[in-house]
Design goal:
This protein folds into two domains: 4-122, 3-Layer(aba) Sandwich (Rossmann fold); 130-264 and 297-318, Dihydrodipicolinate Reductase, domain 2, CATH 3.30.360.10. 32% of the residues lie in helices and 24% in strands. It has helices at residues 15-24, 39-49, 58-62, 76-88, 103-115, 130-140, 169-181, 274-284, 294-313, and strands at residues 4-9, 29-35, 54-55, 69-72, 92-95, 120-122, 147-155, 184-193, 197-206, 211-217, 228-232, 235-238, 250-253, 259-260, 317-318. The strands form two sheets. It has a nine-stranded mixed sheet, covered by helices on one side. A six-stranded parallel sheet has the order 3-2-1-4-5-6, with helices on both faces. β1 (4-9), α1 (15-24) and β2 form a beta-alpha-beta unit. The chain is globular.
Length: 334
């Protein structure tokens, strides 16, 4: 089947890794062009990764009829504007996280994509890597019985305030937890809030009955708390570090010893762009569901906003959105 053609805009910090993977690691997707505000940087990336075309402007890229998917890696302050322009031009879009700077703008993008019958996807996509897909298989195969709870603790002392713990690493944790345990019903949070929330704790109630705890902070030094775990009626899974694609994955059944589990899936190394590659697969198969969806990204954004809203009001917040639990990947992605 013919490859899906993707154009990448944004050749900065994450552009190199994504371009490398889209041009060399994933089948079924072909990068037809690149674009960046710094044209020389786009030229350099095109040479390095064998991309045939460099667009001078966003408009030039959107006018290219060959480009079916726009992979949007632009800085966060203009990311949603690029996504909107691409959707309005009739392009499918895969965007770096976050989907939008606000829930209202995110909802508009999701609705625009649905009305236009276009695919809209968003990172983080590390839940599609070998580590978390192995955890998904352990859950689905019943190794820890019925999930009861989860815990995610992220301590990143001194992290940039515009990239604070909750809205950066916390997004990776929450996306993974929704992908593993399903959507969230309501939350309760407490937070230390200056210019941005820098120390957030919260309780997360999942629709399927599990209860999670999250602590995301850029105000504390790394501590000896459990990092990222899921608890079940028959055991515990220790998940890989937030944001990673590989392992280690550890399993404890009952009161037994903690065992490291061999990874059951591919994409153990840095596999940024796997969400866009999965969108290309879905497009090749006739618009079948893709996993790193805008509905998932919007739901996670609402979880984070609701934790802050709860911290300000002192009560539980019931979420308005939901999403499908993404299907697991096969042991090798087609």
């Amino acid at each position: 089947m013919e490859s899906v053609k993707a154009a990448v805009i944004g050749c900065g910090e994450s552009g190199g890794g994504t371009l490398q993977n889209l041009t060399r690691a994933f089948a079924g997707v072909e990068v037809c062009g690149v674009c960046d505000a710094a044209y020389a940087r786009a030229e350099e990336m095109a040479r390095e990764y064998g991309v045939p075309k460099v667009y001078e402007t966003l408009e030039d890229m959107l006018e290219d009829k060959a480009a079916q998917i726009i992979v949007n890696l632009t800085p966060s302050e203009r990311r949603s504007q690029v996504t909107r322009a691409a959707l309005e031009a009739g392009k499918h879009v895969y965007s770096e996280s976050p989907l939008a700077p606000s829930l209202a703008e995110g909802a508009e993008l999701v609705e625009l994509a649905k009305q236009s019958r276009l695919m809209l996807g968003c990172g983080p996509d590390n839940f599609l890597g070998a580590g978390l897909q192995t955890c998904r298989k352990l859950l689905d195969d019943g190794y820890i019985g019925s999930p009861v709870g989860a815990a995610a603790f992220i301590a990143q002392y001194g992290a940039a305030k515009e990239n604070d713990g909750l809205y950066h690493a916390g997004a990776c944790c929450l996306t993974a937890l929704v992908a593993l345990l399903g959507p969230v019903n309501r939350v309760a949070g407490s937070a230390r809030i200056g210019e941005t929330p820098t120390h957030v704790t919260g309780v997360i109630e999942f629709e399927y009955g599990s209860i999670g705890t999250i602590l995301a902070s850029s105000d504390i030094w790394p501590a000896t708390m459990p990092g990222f775990e899921i608890y079940g009626t028959e055991g515990t899974i220790s998940l890989p570090a937030p944001g990673s694609f590989g392992g280690p994955v550890r399993l404890r059944r009952g009161a037994g010893a903690l065992m490291e589990i061999p990874l059951t899936h591919g994409y153990e190394t840095d596999s940024r762009g796997i969400g866009a590659a999965d969108m290309a697969r879905a497009l090749r198969s006739g618009m079948s569901p893709h996993r790193a969806s805008a509905d998932l990204a919007y739901h996670v954004l609402e979880i984070m906003d609701s934790l802050i809203a709860s911290a300000k009001t002192g009560g539980h917040v019931t979420l308005k959105s939901s999403c499908l639990r993404p299907e697991p990947l096969p042991t090798s992605m087609p």
